[in-house]
Design brief:
By secondary structure, this protein is an alpha/beta fold. About 30% of the residues lie in helices and about 25% in strands. InterPro entries: Ala_racemase_N (IPR001608), D-amino_acid_metab_enzyme (IPR051466), D-ser_dehydrat-like_dom (IPR026956), D-ser_dehydrat-like_sf (IPR042208), PLP-binding_barrel (IPR029066).
Length: about 375
């Protein structure tokens, strides 16, 4: 435990709740599994740090003090740059209001690559680069699955954007895509198909640009499901993924991990009962868990999360069925009050979340433990906001 945390509680049972708990053993197991999956291919790994927002977790993911990373906010880029990370991909579409921040980071020696998906933004970026006598590193975002942002692979605009950037003296670093629709897949076979679709769309766009005489050095793809189950990454330069580090119930519902692999949980305390309803009331509501109900679209709805004992062992068919701001409601999956376990007031529990990114965002630190243990090994700070 470091000097800053020496006076903090040494066991989970000493903490005021709610609190965020990170099982280091499970986290390291998840990281090793992703590395093994990607080791089958000749690709670089650029993990997404938006899930953890933590220096310690990111270094554990990379297996070294620094390396290429993906961020989703410029605050993340600022924070990681201050901690020695110099190769950063900002994987959210750039807008003119953020140009100054990007330029400041680049003037500090940070290779900060930005993303865009329209000719309008390419022109605005080139105009600003001329005004500032600077050069941006840029990737064109590709819509590989109709999920969110990006240029449709066969759209003429792809070449228009490439030509605009080249004419404006900017460095087109490559193309980027994210198969977010993989989160809606219903089988491993469907995820594998989505992974192939993601790869084909990105590589195909890179080939279109090159055929038009526009340099396109890199092809960047990735989501946790597709990164885990990809069968062919020919032509891909790098893979991005983030939530695999912790896992969550959405990933477990997809078959990407098992429930017992999930490394993140929220520590809570039983504060009351509604025995006629079969309810156990806790002090962790949606402010501690988030409102994310991602499993509601899956074959098995896990409510707001699954319930574990203090050591992290799952309680069979017990889940957080409802949430108010600071109150959680725990019950048996069947809804039968007689099946709800007898958990006295003061009992401490851990809730495994639907979405690790959203739940983590509610907290400012991780209380790090090892598997099945309640001793706090360390406290790792995480940051929030924009």
């Amino acid at each position: 435990m470091n000097d800053a945390t020496i006076n903090l509680p040494r066991r989970l049972s000493d903490l005021e709740t709610p609190a965020l708990v990170l099982d280091q053993d499970r986290m390291e197991q998840n990281i090793a599994r992703m590395r093994a999956s990607l080791a089958r291919f000749d690709v670089a790994f650029r993990p997404h740090v938006k899930t953890s927002k933590s220096i310690q977790v990111t270094r554990a993911t990379l297996g070294q003090a620094s390396g290429p990373i993906t961020v989703s906010t410029l605050k993340e880029a600022e924070y990681f740059a201050a901690n020695g990370f110099t190769d950063i991909l900002y994987a959210v579409g750039i807008v003119p209001g953020k140009f100054d921040h990007v330029i400041r980071l680049r003037q500090q020696g940070i290779k900060l690559t930005v993303v865009l998906d329209s000719l309008e933004m390419a022109q605005a970026l080139c105009d600003r680069a001329r005004q500032e006598n600077t050069r941006f590193d840029v990737m064109i975002e590709i819509d590989s699955d109709g999920h969110r942002s990006g240029v449709v692979p066969d759209a003429p605009e792809l070449l228009d954007i490439g030509r605009c950037l080249a004419a404006g003296g900017q460095h087109l670093a490559g193309v980027i895509t994210h198969a977010g629709n993989s989160y809606n897949c219903r089988s491993i076979t469907a995820i594998r198909q989505m992974a192939q679709q993601e790869r084909d769309a990105a590589v195909g766009c890179a080939e279109r640009l090159r055929a038009a005489g526009i340099a396109c050095p890199a092809v960047s793809i990735g989501s946790t499901p597709t990164a885990m189950f990809a069968g062919n990454l020919d032509g891909v330069s790098e893979v991005r993924a983030g939530v695999f580090v912790f896992g969550d119930l959405v990933m477990a519902g997809l078959g990407v991990c098992r429930q017992q692999d999930i490394a993140l949980s929220v520590l809570t305390t039983v504060i009351g009962h509604q025995k006629e309803k079969g309810w156990i009331i806790t002090d962790a509501g949606w402010m501690a868990m988030s409102r994310d109900r991602g499993t509601s679209k899956q074959a098995v709805d896990q409510g707001y999360g699954l319930v574990c004992d203090l050591g992290g062992a799952l309680l069979p068919d017990v889940l957080m069925v409802d949430a108010n701001q600071e109150h959680g409601v725990i019950a048996h999956r069947s809804g039968d009050p007689a099946q709800t376990p007898d958990l006295p007031i003061g009992t401490m529990l851990r809730i495994v979340p639907n979405h690790a990114c959203a739940t983590g965002a509610q907290h400012s630190r991780y209380h790090v433990v090892s598997r099945d243990a309640a001793d706090i090994l360390d406290v790792w700070e995480r940051f929030r906001g924009w």
